[in-house]
Amino acid sequence: MSTNQIALKHLVSMELLSNEEVLSLIKRGIEFKNGEKVSYDDQHIVSNLFFESSTRTHKAFEVAELKLGLDLLDFDSKTSSVNKGETLYDTILTLSALGVDVCVIRHPEVDYYKELIDSPTITASIVNGGDGSGQHPSQSLLDLMTIYEEFGHFDGLKVAIAGDLKHSRVAKSNMMILKRLGAELYFAGPEEWRTAEFAEYGTFVTIDEVIDKVDVMMFLRVQHERHDEYSAFSINNYHKAHGLNQERYDRLQEHAIIMHPAPVNRGVEIADELVEAPKSRIVQQMTNGVFVRMAIIEAVLKGREENR
């Protein structure tokens, strides 16, 4: 058995993971990427419940589950009893009673998972696929895996997170764990999209102040769906002030990498021709998302085995 196999009851927030657990999940993801295989004697059923649109997270979890040889129970919110007014709690209570082992959930409500993991009746394990503008732990772990593959450590790395900070669960998940792992953090983007919580973890700057100093330049998607003020939003003005253009790309250090959780608003956060540039790790992030999610599901299944 790999020393990187860990056991978790649920995975809902980066805050609830220790540094050791985070590193174990990263290293286990790398083992899966390098060809590690697992097999299960018992049947395990997983259901992916996405109440917000998703391509990468949803399909990466599906591919991860298929690679682990698990049985997938289809769930479509459009044809479920949610349309009759059924609550999320009762939906998960039902799936749990039917014998589903793991529910991967994306939901617009921040902290939706709290009543699920506190329930004495729900036995299914919960994996958070994103809660509103709260947390996105699996994205954070794939980001960390990508950085770890590149540098082999986090301590002392200079990481800038730029863009729609206020509405980004990616930024919130990453800032917490990167700070804890020893990285030096900078935050850039429009002032109206900054909130006080970011000041606890790093320094507010403009992108031009840090572009030539950082090891990791992480851009965030402008989340049009979570804003009300986009009638006045200018793509050209945003890109000019806060986006990655060729001039800024050329100022990056030789070893620096570009990251983005995707989907990229091409020509907004990053110039179209730079999305797949040599310093970009965006495609690698998507690939790593499958393998780190294999590690997550494996850890939760192991936790269930140990708690029988």
Give a structural overview.
It comes from Streptococcus himalayensis. It is an enzyme of class 2 (transferase). GO terms for molecular function: amino acid binding; aspartate carbamoyltransferase activity. Pathway: Pyrimidine metabolism; UMP biosynthesis via de novo pathway; (S)-dihydroorotate from bicarbonate: step 2/3. Keywords: Pyrimidine biosynthesis, Transferase. This protein has 308 residues and is α/β, with parallel strands linked by helices. It folds into 2 domains: 143 residues, Rossmann fold; 144 residues, 3-Layer(aba) Sandwich (Rossmann fold), CATH 3.40.50. The protein has 11 helices and 9 strands. The strands form 2 sheets. Strands 7-6-5-8-9 form a 5-stranded parallel sheet, covered by helices on one side. It has a 4-stranded parallel sheet with strand order 2-1-3-4, sandwiched between helices. Helix 1 crosses helix 11, helix 2 packs across helix 11 and helix 5 packs across helix 6.
Shape type: globular
| Order of adjacent strands in the largest pleated sheet | 7-6-5-8-9
Class computed from helices, strands and strand pairing: alpha/beta
The tally of domains stands at: 2
Radius of gyration: 19 Å
Mean pLDDT: 94
Secondary-structure element order, as H and E? HEHEHEHEHEHEHEHEHHEH
Low-confidence stretches: none
InterPro entries: Asp/Orn_carbamoyltranf_P-bd, Asp/Orn_carbamoylTrfase, Asp/Orn_carbamoylTrfase_sf, Asp_carbamoyltransf, Asp_carbamoyltransf_Asp/Orn-bd
Domain Aspartate/ornithine carbamoyltransferase carbamoyl-P binding: 9-149
Subunit structure: Heterododecamer (2C3:3R2) of six catalytic PyrB chains organized as two trimers (C3), and six regulatory PyrI chains organized as three dimers (R2).
Function: Catalyzes the condensation of carbamoyl phosphate and aspartate to form carbamoyl aspartate and inorganic phosphate, the committed step in the de novo pyrimidine nucleotide biosynthesis pathway.
